[in-house]
């Protein structure tokens, strides 16, 4: 079973920020947190990953709690193309849960 | 490099037949993963290889499933005596396993329908 838990679904309005949470309370000290997303009828695609410090890339930001037991994927301005299922996984595990289905409303 | 390729994209078969899927990873990637995904669920881990060695196999995986990665390049996933419950999308992913990254690149998947 996956070692991460996420809400089943979230909604956002277009052009507003979205914060997608993930709990990974059993994470080990050397384990990386990865985020992927899956658009309809496609395979998952990589979004971002991190270890301890917050990370930014062109797609999103990753905020990691100080105790590393949770993390938050931040989409700064959601677009309709961001509607997808978002998964967080741990590098040592590589197991996916059901993810969070993000709906973006125009 | 065109990414991870999977073949066939779609396969319809009758119950009891054998099917084989092929995955061609990104050439410099040393790890290759197989996942299965059914509607509304996340990808379910099946197995993974590092080079040609199969390092982990899901305990939930039936003996009817076998995977190979000869020479550490492409991989095949074979399902023998298919059952209707095997109907799913079979996803392949590859990665370059380094100390920190191991970022997965997925193929588009092979959809299996067992009648």
Task: Please provide a written account of the structure.
The complex is a heterodimer of chains A (106) and B (115). With 106 residues, chain A is mostly beta strands. Helix content of chain A is 0%, strand content 45%. Chain A contains no helices and nine strands. A five-stranded mixed beta sheet of chain A has the order 1-9-8-3-4, with no helix packed on it. A four-stranded antiparallel beta sheet of chain A has the order 2-7-6-5, with no helix packed on it. Chain A is globular and about 40 Å long. Chain A starts with 8 loop residues before the first strand and ends with a strand. With 115 residues, chain B is mainly beta. Helices cover 0% and strands 49% of the residues of chain B. Chain B is built from no helices and eleven strands. In chain B, the strands form two sheets. In chain B, strands 2, 4, 5, 6, 9, 10 and 11 form a seven-stranded mixed beta sheet that branches. In chain B, strands 1-3-8-7 form a four-stranded antiparallel beta sheet, with no helix packed on it. In chain B, a hairpin with a 2-residue loop joins strand 5 and strand 6 (53-57). The radius of gyration of chain B is 14 Å and the shape is globular. Chains A and B meet through strand 4 of A and strand 5 and strand 10 of B.
Structural category of chain A is mainly beta
Could you give the distance between the termini of chain A? 35 Å
Shape of chain A: globular
Any idea what the shape of chain B is?
globular
Largest interface by Cβ-Cβ < 8 Å = A-B, 20 and 22 residues
Largest sheet of chain A: 5 strands, mixed
Helix and strand succession of chain B?
EEEEEEEEEEE
Sheet bearing the most strands of chain B, described? 7 strands, mixed
- Judged by helices, strands and strand pairing, the structural class of chain B is mainly beta
Number of strands of chain B: 11
Radius of gyration of chain A: 13 Å
Question: What level of helicity do the residues of chain B show?
Answer: under 10%
Rg of chain B, alpha carbons:
14 Å
The number of helical elements of chain B comes to 0
